[in-house]
Amino acid sequence: QVHLVESGGGLVQAGGSLRLSCTASGVTFSSYGMGWFRQAPGKERECVLDISWSGRRTVVADSVKGRFTISRDNAKNTVYLQMNSLKLEDTAVYYCAARRTYSSGTYNPNEYDYWGQGTQVTVSS
Questions:
Q1: Closest to 84 (Cα-Cα) out of 67, 64, 62, 70
Q2: 13, 24, 27, 51: which sits with the fewest CB atoms below 10 Å from its CB?
Q3: Dihedrals φ, ψ of 105, to 5°?
């Protein structure tokens, strides 16, 4: 049984920072690639960043380049999303996801096998 639990979301003013965490259980964590996704109402779920089992980072969403960073701590079974310089358009539910396969390079949601419940990030003016 695999569980992914996100935490760290909340309300933050534009220009501020948040760090999201996702802790996994029931997984040999180091064997999984991990992605952070987000979904706003009326919009498709999009991959923001991904990190492979070996630590290779990929910025998928161009809009977060230079502002968001993904990292992982395999000893803690945890992946992080550091979000700086937050903008109103970053408002969304943020999900972590785990994939068992090598990335195809598309980072589509269907590549990922396990999902957390999501955590709300709201950026205010």
A1: 67
A2: 13
A3: 95, -5
